[in-house]
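Example 3.2
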Amino acid sequence: MISRNRSTRFASFLAGSLLCGLVSLPTARAQDAEPAAGSPTATPVVDPNAPPPGAYPAPPPGGALPAVQQSSAAPFKPFLLLPFIGVQSIQNENSGTGPGLRIGGLIGGRVSEQFSFNGELLFDLWNISNVPPTVSESAYVIQAAAAPLFHLQASPTAEIVMGPKLGLFFDHASVSGGGLSGSVSGEGFLVGANLGAFFRVSEALSVGGLINFDYMREEWCSSDQGDCTASDDGLKVISFAGAAQF
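Structure, written as tokens:
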């Protein structure tokens, strides 16, 4: 009887211990999953120099602010000055001339970024060929014309210009030596066109080239020898010049 009571008490104690162990097992696992205080994963590492949330980034050392990119477009200039110098050539057959000097310029103002109204003044010195050594012969032309230009911005630093021209011209030729002496002058109308390209090298200066075509028809003629007849053939002249645009 005593042995049976002891066996019953021992079995009851063993069953109670097993039940307590099963109940406490989930709690122990949860405690093992939590990081221990002071471990590397307990709290995130915070940079002491980092700005607080929502703050602007700190400026670079020295207090210098980031550079702001400036526009490379050229400023609008209401005044236009375009001098040029180059060579011209008369394209008529049997003209008896070679390439000669051309010097001149355009001056005016911009009505807008794309259009300018200008006046053109130029001087051509003709290069007369096949002149005998004992003879001195010279000829020149002066032009005055209206020459508006259209300005096309090909890139922030490159510009193409083109436009017509309409005006008047005056020519003069003289010969002396070898038993010859005399001079003749003429006046007439001209039409033509300009085409050029310029590249900006500073805020105030662009450099480039200019191609010009002129058709000149003489209407009046005078000579120190008396009789003079204006030519029915118009002169066709093409020129190439280096130019600067201010």
